[in-house]
Amino acid sequence: MNQAAREDLTTPTFPPPEELARNANVTEATYAQAEVDDLAFWAEQAKRISWSKEPTEVLDWSNAPFAKWFADGELNAAYNMVDRHVEAGHGDRVAFHFEGEPGDARAITYAELKDEVSQLANALVELGVQAGDRVAIYMPMIPEAVIAMVACARLGAPHVVVFGGFSADALVNRINDCGCEIVITADGGYRRGKPSALKPAVDKALLQCPQVRNVIVAKRTGQDTEMVQGRDLWWDDFVATQSTEHTPESFPAEQPLYVMYSSGSTGKPKGILHTTGGYLVGTAYTHWATFDLKPETDVFWTAADIGWVTGHSYLVYAPLLNGATSVLYEGTPDTPHKGRWWEIIDKYRVTILYCAPTAIRTFMKWGSEIPERYDLSSLRILGSVGEPINPEAYLWYRKHIGHDDTPVVDTWWQTETGMHLISPMPGVATGKPGAAMRALPGVSVEVVDDEGKVLGKGESGLLVLTKPWPAMLRSLWNDDQRYIDTYWSRFDNMYFAGDGAKRDADGDIWLLGRVDDVMNVSGHRMSTAEIESALVSHPKVAEAAVVGATDETTGQAIVAFVILRSDAGDGGDDIVNELRTHVANEIGAIAKPKSIMVVSELPKTRSGKIMRRLLRDIAEDREVGDVTTLQDSSVMDQIKSGLKGGS
Ligand code: ATP
Ligand code: MG
């Protein structure tokens, strides 16, 4: 098939706004500098961090694929995130504008954050937490969640954040896999206008986690909460009464920082291990580069949960490392009304918004008249993360949220990579809707064929990293072999990302979805992302997911699941044929789905990714697999019961 089909010739491209280009953090010179000597470039980036002992080494790759970055350096992560900004006279700067779902708000300055982090650090020390001990965090999106992460980092005690929407089972798995002995949680959080309890899930989980000694419980909703005597401690009683003085200890650069489980889109979640020095350097640098961050004037908002890596790297770590002012929002985008995000942007004069395409498509479905009611003129850069952004969503985002003059940066990265690896730089790139464009300065990516041969312009294949990067995962928790097998066995000395990609005629990179999701129909390799993009370009379609189902004649057959836009009604009797013809016109007859099912929901992970493996189970009429990381586990039943099929 013609892989170039997605680069529709009529899709416009967008050069950077002049003023942004003039004052840009990253310029072509930055690429050139990194090209000359990437290790020298990374050594330079390491100066963004305050080290108690400056590193003299950059990369130690002698025990590949187990990397050490800045190995002889020493530092404290939390010192870099709070204390040093206070010492530099920025204690009054707002670190977070917290906005609760019910509308309560609180501005937290760097000085306040330092005090509260110190109190929790002292509390954890009192509970016997030492460097290297793992601490589980299961919290709503409230300031205490950030404080918990930073306090753990301060003690060199790796945190294991579990998304607050996951069930007790998911919590058990992660607590036990990492051997956590302390859990930090809350009574509950606000979700769709109502208090939603969290503590009962912890109580249930801990029946299966005998090693957990203590639970610290922040009060958010004030709902009735059972406390186990001797084990459970209220934050207000135990933490808020601690001293605000705590001296940060220095740790080696390779001190484990956290374990985060991947989304589980392609299988059982992996416990991804990040360490301190390289991760801090990589996230601070990319946050500055990709978002052209100006910490004195920007108001940055990552609208993602701390329960996934975007919430770690770009909601907590990088913004605090860079001394930025951020928004932290507790709730859902439609509570109490569908303009909530735009109201928040208006209220705090947000300049940079970072979210997932799935959110953007939801807003499209709700209609552009909603954001039009708010003043969004403060925005200057829009970010996207999690999956390829289809051109329709890109164009809508830019036009209706970004007043048609705001660059959209489509950031490709993974839990494993810790930091952005591919993204347009807003002051340099001429944006192409749908393309992630180019590796960041210092990062080396290639598109290769099945044998590992590097491909050129106009060719598609597999995405690999040809050099290590500072924020890369160091291993999988307790599973070095799975680390080697998953990422380093497919090719010699190259990191296999598991994603398909192509270079267009200009050499720019487009992501084509998971390699596991690439379909083979009558010998033609086709990407799910491309067909999904064609489907959502139809005016009646809001969202689409495509899978390849085993087929006797064609090897695999294309099966599509679509959600119609609210103004499309049920789409009419001929909707299935209409859409099949549309795909044939957009891409070619070979890409025509064999069947299309109209559904009201799609199975998504918490980070908004479609779990195609579950849809494949439906398309192939099997029992559906592991659903523990689904955002809403009832979705699969809804889909099965409500199918309006056709072929
Ligand atoms: P698992 O590895 O357990 O299956 P996952 O891969 O969904 O889970 P994440 O680390 O959250 O877990 O997601 C990383 C993946 O998300 C990437 O490999 C890629 O497929 C996709 N992705 C993220 N950002 C982008 C983007 N900007 N463009 C295209 N794909 C993206
Ligand atoms: Mg993955």
From TrEMBL:
<dbReference type="InterPro" id="IPR000873">
    <property type="entry name" value="AMP-dep_synth/lig_dom"/>
</dbReference>
<dbReference type="InterPro" id="IPR045851">
    <property type="entry name" value="AMP-bd_C_sf"/>
</dbReference>
<dbReference type="GO" id="GO:0019427">
    <property type="term" value="P:acetyl-CoA biosynthetic process from acetate"/>
</dbReference>
<feature type="domain" description="Acetyl-coenzyme A synthetase N-terminal">
    <location>
        <begin position="28"/>
        <end position="80"/>
    </location>
</feature>
<dbReference type="Pfam" id="PF00501">
    <property type="entry name" value="AMP-binding"/>
</dbReference>
<dbReference type="InterPro" id="IPR025110">
    <property type="entry name" value="AMP-bd_C"/>
</dbReference>
<dbReference type="InterPro" id="IPR032387">
    <property type="entry name" value="ACAS_N"/>
</dbReference>
<dbReference type="GO" id="GO:0003987">
    <property type="term" value="F:acetate-CoA ligase activity"/>
</dbReference>
<dbReference type="GO" id="GO:0005829">
    <property type="term" value="C:cytosol"/>
</dbReference>
<dbReference type="GO" id="GO:0016208">
    <property type="term" value="F:AMP binding"/>
</dbReference>
<keyword id="KW-0067">ATP-binding</keyword>
<keyword id="KW-0436">Ligase</keyword>
<keyword id="KW-0007">Acetylation</keyword>
<dbReference type="Pfam" id="PF13193">
    <property type="entry name" value="AMP-binding_C"/>
</dbReference>
<protein>
    <recommendedName>
        <fullName>Acetate--CoA ligase</fullName>
        <ecNumber>6.2.1.1</ecNumber>
    </recommendedName>
</protein>
<dbReference type="GO" id="GO:0005524">
    <property type="term" value="F:ATP binding"/>
</dbReference>
<dbReference type="Pfam" id="PF16177">
    <property type="entry name" value="ACAS_N"/>
</dbReference>
<comment type="similarity">
    <text>Belongs to the ATP-dependent AMP-binding enzyme family.</text>
</comment>
<dbReference type="InterPro" id="IPR011904">
    <property type="entry name" value="Ac_CoA_lig"/>
</dbReference>
<feature type="domain" description="AMP-binding enzyme C-terminal">
    <location>
        <begin position="530"/>
        <end position="609"/>
    </location>
</feature>
<dbReference type="InterPro" id="IPR042099">
    <property type="entry name" value="ANL_N_sf"/>
</dbReference>
<dbReference type="InterPro" id="IPR020845">
    <property type="entry name" value="AMP-binding_CS"/>
</dbReference>
<feature type="domain" description="AMP-dependent synthetase/ligase">
    <location>
        <begin position="88"/>
        <end position="469"/>
    </location>
</feature>
<keyword id="KW-0547">Nucleotide-binding</keyword>
